[in-house]
Amino acid sequence: MTKYLTLAIVFFSLQLFAQKNTELLSATIIGSGSPKYNTERAGPSVLISYKNTKILVDMGNGAQANLSKHNTKTRELNGILFTHHHLDHNEEFIPIFIQSLLGGKNFIIAGPKPTSNLVNSTLNIYKEDIEYRLSKSKRTLNSVKSNYTVKNLNGEESFTIGDIKITCTQVNHSITTLAYRFEAGGNSIVISGDLSYSESLPKLAKNADFLIIDSGGAIELGSKRTGNVNRQNTNNTGKKDRAHVNLDESSRMAKEANVKNLVLTHFNFTKVDEDATTTQIRQNYFGTVLYAEDLMTLPYANNLHTHDNGETHTHEASLERLFSNECVVELNEKNMVSITEDRINDLRIIKANSIPNHAVGKFPTQGNPNTISEQNKIYRIDLTPEIAKTKTYVYDLGIDKGRPNYVFGVAINGVKIEPSANEFFKNTITNEPNYEWTLEPLSDEVNLGEDCNNAHVQPNGEYHYHGTPTGLVSKFDEKTMNLVGWAADGFPMYHKVGYKDAMNPKSEIIELKSSYRIKKGERPGDGISAPNGAYSGMYVGDYEYDENYGDLDACNGRTGVTPEFPNGTYYYVVSDDFPSASRCFVGTPSNDFKVGGNRNQPTQQGNRQQANRQRPNVSQNENAQPNFTNMLQRMDANKDGKISKQEAKGNLLENFDIRDTNKDGYITENELGRRN
What we know:
This protein has 676 residues and is α+β, with helices and mostly antiparallel strands. It has 15 helices and 37 strands. It has a 7-stranded mixed beta sheet. Strands 7-8-9-10-11-12-13 form a 7-stranded mixed beta sheet.
C-alpha cells in the first residue's frame, strides 16, 4: 500500500511538471497493462502532448478514468490513433469517440484498417443516442461530421496533428499493426504497439529520446525465471510465436535504433522484477531502461546506477527535482550496531544491520524502486591510522571523475556513507558513458530518489547516505564537536563544526568551510561526447579546490584536537556544502569498503597494504562454512528447503550469483558449502 501511495504522489508531481512544461513533447502512460484485468494497471494507452496538442494512442480498459485523473478531458483530444485493432487496445474507443464528437472540436482518427469501418459502425449503432445528446445543444449528427477526419493508414505515411509531426510504419504482429514516431520541439517519442522483432522499428525509432515498447519477456517479481535472454519466442506447443517480443528482441531493436530511453509497458502482471529484467536487457542495450506505471509522465532522463554489490537499476537524473521525499516513515526494524576495538590486531570493528536510528523517506519511490531491509555488515578499519604518502580516491580515475572505487565510511549508527554515484554524462549519439564527467548525487539538478537524509536504497535493500545524514545529525548539539562516523582509512568524521584554533579545545566553535567552489565559465565539452554549458554543480568536475577559500584540505579534513582525540588527530568533516563527505582518503582505506568486490582498481603507491595484515578473530566461526540451517530459518519464507534470490539477505544476496553455481536461481546446502 505504501508503494502505491508513493507512486500516487510521484505521478501527481509529474503531472504538475508536465503541465508547467507544455513546450516539451511529452508522453503520459495512461494505461500500462494488458488484456488481463488489473486494478493497478489500465489497458494500453498513451497520451502524447505538446503545447495545446493532445493525441491519444490506443484506449484500453480504464483509459477514461486515468485521463480524468490526469485532468485531461476527452473533448480536448486533437487526435485518436490506433496501433492495431485488438480489443485490449481499442476497448474504450466508442465512449471516447462519442465524447470527442459531442465536444465540437476538430480531431483526427487514424489507424490501420478497419479504422474507418469501426468509426462508421459506431455511428450506425449509436446514431439515436448521439442525435439525442447533440439535440440538447441544438445540433445534429450531420452538423458535426465535419469535425473529424478518419484515415486508414498503411504504414508509410507522415502527417501532422497540431504542432506534432507523426510518422508510422508497419511492425510484425498477429494482425496489421503500426508503430508511431512523434516529433516536436526537437524531441522525439516512439510507440511500438504490440510486436515481435521488426526491422522497420529501429529505422523509425533512430536516435529517438524515448521508445515505448511491448514488455514481452519482462520478469515478474517473485518469479523463478533467471538466466540469459531467450533468443526466440515460443508458445507452449514449441512453435514460434510471432505475436510479442522477448527481451532479446526489444533490447536489440533499442540498440539498433540507438534510443536514449527504453520504456517497457503492456505488462500482464502488477509487479516487475526490474533488476532481473534490466540485467537481461543489458546483454544488448546500455541506455536507460524504464518501467511504465499508469500516469507516469515522460520525459525525465534516467541513468543506470551500479552499487558495490554489482547490481544495476535505474535512477531518475532529472533536470529539476520534482518532489521532496519527506522523512515520515518509522521503520519496524530496529537499529543494531556495535563498535569495538581489537587492540591486538589494531582494528576497530563495526558490525551493523544498516537500519538507521531515525525516520526515513518513502521507499520505493521515484528513482529508487527498492525497499529497505536489514543487512549483516562487518567493517574492519585501522584503530591507529596513519597518513599515507599519497591519497586514495573515492572514484577510480581521480578526485572528480570515474566510477565508484570506495565507500567512504560508515556512520556511528552503522549506515554506510557513499558519496559517489555510478552516474555519468552519456554521449547523446552513442549513449556511451563519459567517465570523466560523473554526476554529483547531491546536486539539485540530479534526482536519485534520495530522502531528506540524503539517502536512498540499493537493490539488496541497503539504506545508505550520499551526504550529510540529516536525521542522525539533527540530534547533535552544534555547540560542540560531534563524531558522525568513521572513514574507511580509520580516521574519524565529525559533523560540520570544529574549534576555530584547530589545536585549542578552548577556542570558539565555528562552522568549518569547505575549500571547494564551483568553477567559473563554461564546461569545455561539445554537448555530445562531453557536457557543455555553464558550470553549475551538476557534475563533480564542476568544482575546483582552492586552498585559500575555506578551512579544510582537498579531502575535506584537517588535523586538530577533538573530544575523542584530545592529543590531536587528522579528521574529516561532513559538511553541508560540496563535497559533503570526502572524495579522497589521506590514509589507507580498508578493503571492506572497496566497491565492486574483485574489480581491478588502481592502487596508490606508498600506502600500507592492509591485505598483508593479520585479520582479527571476530568470532570463532567467522571463517567456517556458513550454517545453512540457520539461514533457512531466517530466509526460507516458503519453506521449500532452499533460498531464492528474492529470499536472500545480506552477504548471501550480495554473493548470490557466485554461490548459485548451477544458475537455477536457488542456493542449496551443497552450493553454500562450496568455496568459490
